[in-house]
């Protein structure tokens, strides 16, 4: 394209020059070939310069001819011309007057402007009138100003306009981009944890780059502090490194040191500066210099003498004062500290633990990845009310010390194993432990890494952390003593003692609210680990499992939603084929009826349907309804349904659990007041009175008065409609989810089971070759009902054991509630289960994971819906039962 701008004109004396508007309103180039225009894949165009999207070509032409685009083009051309005439100058003393720079570079041409760094005054931009004048200044061999040598280079080219700022954080590593796909393909949890280490740890190239930076720092600092050493510590070298972790460096100063060139005259080229010479103590010795002045001197060396270092700032108020920096070429951030040898021993201790047992690193990586996904760690600024990576790793070490038998020895045991060459005292603290992990005897603990990860969450989820002192030194949790008896240790909601500096609480920064959330997240993760989705990979489903299920949003318990375990069920949209606004096949009422049928008649659950009116005993003060014929279908053994009336006003989704004592549950066949398939309730599931019920919409016959039919003076309320319940109190007496696949194959065999002929299943249920009037869905329901009957009878084909019979109490109890959910295009019925008690036992997780795939398919069969109809497809993974 041709030139974008016209001549620069002034608008009066004393005013800044303004770019004249483009005299040609038409773009100088074809809009489709303009480098500022980006065609979009779905049509339309985007202007990279103005960050504006145009829907079509006329809109694009109008935008390119507008004032905003022309003004930005002119401003960009002006900036490009300024870059060709400007110099970047650094190395001058702080407080230098811009007039001095103007006089110095005036020898090469006319200086049109000098822009100083406002924050630190460490650099300046000098603009000359012509590019040839800038070239003469760059070719000059040496620039001196006030006895200092200036560093002069061309001004850096920057894009215009600048892209929007991105969120601060380490760059995403290429190996971690496919983390979910890689973990999903692993065969088991242990392989997932090993793969997590391989994907997150530093690569060999990254380790070499960090080694080169350490060598560069060593070379530079040795010029100013002869005999010093730069030692890396922290995440980079403690065995738990991850992509983008900080480069922590410790400057080990010699016992006696002085700055070279102290005897040179002030302002000479060999010394740092006149002011910096005064930072040292008397006689130029580093021993007498205060720590704050030493940090300032270290910052000066970093800022002026290490290539590529920028963003240098001292943090003297930290617990261990440091100097932070960033390296431009590598993109790494780090810090340099002085007089912090305890950090070196902490790093060696964690490295020792990582090498002592092959399960330590995978467990540490898994816990740290989980904590970062839950928002419990990973603060980019390094502080705040979150756990540091060091604190998380210490929690893992402490947990492994408390196992029986322990995976790692306690700090006191390591002190006893230390040899004479391993003895060390730092600041009065005993830092003795072996340097070689081979001196340890192999651990007698044979648990897998996956089981240790599950126990980690159960362990910390069950601790009363505010009342305990977690001591890796002792290898056990101690009752927290009063603050005055801790020897300077500051207790907090989470008191985690450093293994060497016993007066340091590593988790002192976290508040009580965080500790409560940490315990809750641990309990939710432990609940997920007890379920089948943690240990067993789905055969066909892409649902996250194992470690991947812990890393996804949701706190480690993905099925928990709104206070219960949620199961989506199919629902036809309103106005769909056969759907209707609320009824018809596949409507909300029919889905609720199908749910009750499957739970009661197919799975043999002991259900108590309830509404939202009245009290626990019914609408009238809890009287037992008179006996009468039940409208429900005959239930299989173990499927008796007792009716306790309505549940009363609900304070929440499931009502107030503590409003009334729950009635005792009678086992099936016990003949209790609420059991029995034959002795039902004439009110049925709805609490209606005896006698034939009128059809919905018809008039109710007048009640009988003492002297004949009579009409009460007031209008009587209309009776409640015949609606199926949407709230059930259920109990499970048998493990009806186990062994269903084997029983189903046996019952489908044309030779039948014991006493069964071709096409006929035990209990009188007809198979595919039986009742010709039943469809495929009814055949499936009859088959599943026969499977349940076989499980209840104990006819599972297993070796004979205890004779089958009713257990003394139910295995599981829960409440289930159905509500509408989803969207208009994809409506669903969300069935939420609340276990009793909460948290539920591990057996409930097995039942829930079975029910989540079994129930939607059975509801479809009951309503005659196709598999892809009604949305809410059940999770894939083979058949909907457990073996």
The fraction of residues in strands falls at 5-15%
- Terminal Cα span: 72 Å
- The low-confidence runs, each spanning 5 or more residues with pLDDT under 50, are 1-28, 165-176, 257-284, 555-563, 577-583, 611-691, 705-709, 752-775, 871-883
Largest sheet: 6 strands, antiparallel
- Helix segment count? 22
β-strand number:
31
**pLDDT averaged residue by residue:** 73
Notes on the protein architecture:
By secondary structure, the protein is α+β, with helices and mostly antiparallel strands. Among the domains are: 8-79, no CATH class; 350-534, Poly(a)-polymerase, middle domain (Orthogonal Bundle), CATH 1.10.1410; 567-653 and 663-688 and 722-733 and 806-883, no CATH class. 30% of the residues lie in helices and 15% in strands. It is built from 22 helices and 31 strands. The strands form 10 sheets. The chain has a 6-stranded antiparallel sheet with strand order 22-23-31-30-29-24, covered by helices on one side. The protein is flat, with a radius of gyration of 38 Å. The two termini are 72 Å apart. The N terminus and C terminus are likely disordered.
